[in-house]
Amino acid sequence: MILTDAQVHVWEAHRPDRPWPPESLASPQFVAVPGARPHRAEPIGADEMVSMMDAAGVHRAVIVPPSPAGDSNLCALEAARKYPGRFVVMGRFDPSQPGARDRLAVFMRQPHMAGIRMTFHKPPWNEWLDDGRIDWFWTDCERLGIPLMLLIPGRLDAVARIAQRHPGLALVVDHLGLHSNHRDAQCHGDIDALLPLAGFANVHVKASAVPCYTDEPYPFRALAPLLRRVYDHFGPHRFSWGSDVSRLPCSYRQAVEHFLHELDFIDRTDLPSVMGGAISRVLRWAQPGPTDGR
Questions:
Q1: Which of 89, 186, 253, 273 is 20 to 30 A off residue 284, Cα-Cα?
Q2: What pLDDT was estimated at residue 292?
């Protein structure tokens, strides 16, 4: 089984030639929203990430550049270039910037770029969902075949609208659509909002950062019923494991074993899809054959 982690962060500290946004420098904690589990403060470089993957038995990973570091994808693309076959990148892209449409047209020509990850958990990004400013973006991504990952808690209604208008656009909902500051019973409402999206064939779900949404220790049994509901609705071909390893409250190995051994509702024959096959198909990232490898 080829294990492909659907979300890891690789980043570097602020430096003059690659600056972080001023608002990120003013906040010392790398955290999505108050109450969310924070990422570790120290950057994770390519070498460390590969070492962590090797120790946990993870063959490949999708790098998602973290929003606090800004919209540059250079660090992530450099990691993918340094370790060919181990990484692809879901790059950041700002559709509100001048010339964005022209840049989007050539975005996927960058080696190792697999798509775009959009974050809508803070203003002004969440305002784009309603004011029509980026309607062209969804249209062009559909036409160009650019898969999208969406961090979009509380706005799954917008995902439904986009999915219906653009049936050829692959949409991946990050972290089960959960609010980052929710735990255990608080997650039920988020899952209720997520499940209707299973009716759209172009909507996929990342079961990523799961241990961050419970106060229970491994094996996080309180979340099993929620995960089963999502799995039963979306099926193994639209349901993908991911770690978001830099903010886990458990070890990387435990995050892997949780899905491999503790969720008995996932059929053993479906594990290759859940643990990498599904996200690889969405991103058109060919999996190595039986004689290939690291």
A1: 253
A2: 46
